[in-house]
Amino acid sequence: MRSIMLLSGALLALAVLGPLIAPNDPMAIDIPNRLGPPNPEHWLGTDAMGRDILSRLLHGARWTIGLAFLISVAGLLVGTALGLLSALGGKVVDWGLMRATDTFLAFPDLVAAVVVAGLLGASTGSLIFALTVTGWMRYARVARGIGLSVKSRGYVIQAQLAGLSPLATARWHYLPSLLPSLTVIWTGMFARAILGISALGFLGFGVQPPVPEWGTMLLDARIHMRSTPLQMIWPGIAVVCSVLAINLAGDALRDDLAGQHHAQ
Fold it and tell me: Is 86 exposed, middle or buried (0-12, 13-18, 19+ CB in 10 A)?
């Protein structure tokens, strides 16, 4: 598990430090060297504008992985808050929030995100909003279920009778029970966010050129797929490896938490 967690941490470090270790300017156009193969100067070759692919991948990590982290955290916060509100807010609030959650869950995430991003227009802000508004429901479901379970426990009832504020009750009694399950879900949603960002970028609804985002790089390379397939292979490998590492980390974390639960 430790090696997998380190690999996932390396991905986050890549999102932060990638632009600092890029060997070339990712925006520098060099038409005479366009669509160049890997060479000592450009390790992964150049794209249709002669820009260094390795440098664009490293800069693109900040956008793809960084935005995915932001979107997954935003979904975690929104979904947890709504799930707890549903569990603690009474029957009417619970019914209304759960019907809204069921409505959102009825649509495939990516299809709904494409519709929202299309309505708002192609931009980074629209991308963030579209993937956040379609990614909070699983957190809400789990938070509600655990919240209802914790709500009926004796120590929570005693804390409420003792006058502990709702915020303090949530901080000391609900969140410790929620965190293990929500953390496992978050790793999966983090990976899904990377796929969503790349998919929307490939469809033209995400981060706009010339910003080097992995999905946008796939879109730019599409017309050269037959003549120079490496143009699409490199960003595709970056997406696959990132998603695989995060999913493996989530599986390892789930197994570790399950082992701790059985040990108790």
Answer: buried
Q: How many C-beta neighbours within 10 Å does residue 216 have?
A: 26
Burial class (CB in 10 A: 0-12, 13-18, 19+), 34: middle
For the chain, state the CA radius of gyration.
22
Phi-psi region of 204 (alpha: psi -120 to 50; beta: other; left: phi over 0): left
Residues of the chain scoring pLDDT < 70? 1-8, 166, 257-264
Q: What confidence score (pLDDT) does residue 262 get?
A: 47
| Residue 257, domain CATH | 1.10.3720.10
Residue 97: what pLDDT? 93
Question: Which two structure tokens, joined as six digits, stand for 179?
Answer: 């965190």
Domain membership of residue 48 (yes or no) is no
Give the whole-angstrom CA distance, residue 76 versus residue 85.
14
Greatest alpha-carbon span in the chain:
76
DSSP 205: S
Q: Could you tell me if residue 41 is inside a domain?
A: no
In-domain check, residue 52: no
Q: Find out whether 228 and 36 touch, Cβ atoms under 8 Å.
A: no
Amino acid sitting at position 122: A
Domain total for the chain? 1
Burial of 57 (0-12, 13-18, 19+ CB in 10 A): buried
